[in-house]
Specification:
By secondary structure, the protein is of the alpha/beta class. The protein is built from 8 helices and 5 strands. Helices cover about 45% and strands about 10% of the residues. It has a 5-stranded parallel beta sheet with strand order 2-1-3-4-5, sandwiched between helices.
Length: about 250
């Protein structure tokens, strides 16, 4: 792993301050791994508002929920815009909840995977674990326990990397950093190395609290995710074309 620069430590520290700055609120909603085989057709949804389209579910915290932003400005909504522009007939489900740790996200994974025809899970959790100095081994176990049931359902996983603040020491920071590439390698899932790349530490791209992206910052976050998400979508679209016309 490359040596840590003072600039990167400051940026990572600001990034990981994130998510418990706001209390949990009832807002329930570059490495690319090969996409799994498309999931079997789900049972007919009982939700009259379900579009029936394949879904990308973003399971995360206040970064996903779009703390301080309009719903349309949060990065999941911006991913939906990109899907629409590129002709993907998919739906993005924002399953972000401010303040969530990896343990809290684990409690919601069954719900997240039950949102109709879920094909892709974007997993954006861990910054609150780092903020609180929670054991890294527990965080890694929780994230793995979210990835595993998704893969059992043949849902492709995109893991969004985060960094810990420097105040718990270099050993904690390094160990925390290693969790995301380690899980991506172990489970052969796609990885965004650092979700807030190009945003963390930039005053112009963060809200007045200095820790949540502005609307402009959220667009950069969406771009970071899209770079890794689009190849997964394309692989699934190509696979669908080979097998028949179900939801490309």
């Amino acid at each position: 792993m490359p040596p840590f620069s003072a600039k990167s430590v400051r940026a990572w520290g600001l990034a990981a301050l994130l998510l418990t700055a706001c209390n949990r609120s009832p807002q329930t909603p570059q490495q690319t791994a090969p996409a799994p085989q498309p999931a079997p057709a789900p049972a007919a949804s009982t939700d009259p508002n379900d579009s029936g389209r394949p879904k990308v579910v973003v399971l995360g915290d206040s970064l996903t929920a779009g703390y301080g932003l309009l719903e349309m400005q949060a990065f999941p909504a911006l991913l939906q815009e990109k899907l629409n522009v590129d002709g993907y007939q998919w739906e993005v489900v924002n399953a972000g909840l401010s303040g969530d740790t990896s343990a809290a996200g684990l409690q919601r994974v069954d719900w997240a995977l039950s949102q109709g025809d879920v094909r892709i899970l974007i997993l954006e959790l861990g910054a609150n674990d780092g903020l609180r100095g929670l054991p890294v081994a527990e965080m890694k176990k929780n994230l793995a326990s979210i990835i595993e049931p998704a893969q059992q359902k043949r849902v492709a996983v995109l893991l969004a990397g985060m960094e810990a603040p420097p105040n718990f020491g270099r050993d904690y920071l390094v160990t925390f950093h290693q969790v995301y590439p380690s899980l991506a390698s172990q489970y052969h899932v796609a990885l965004v190395p650092f979700l807030l790349q190009g945003v963390a530490g930039d005053v112009a791209l963060n809200q007045r609290d200095g820790i949540h992206p502005t609307a402009q910052g959220a667009r950069i976050v969406a771009d970071n995710v899209w770079t890794t998400l689009k190849p997964i979508l394309e692989q699934q679209r190509q696979q669908t074309r080979k097998e028949g016309p179900a939801g490309s």
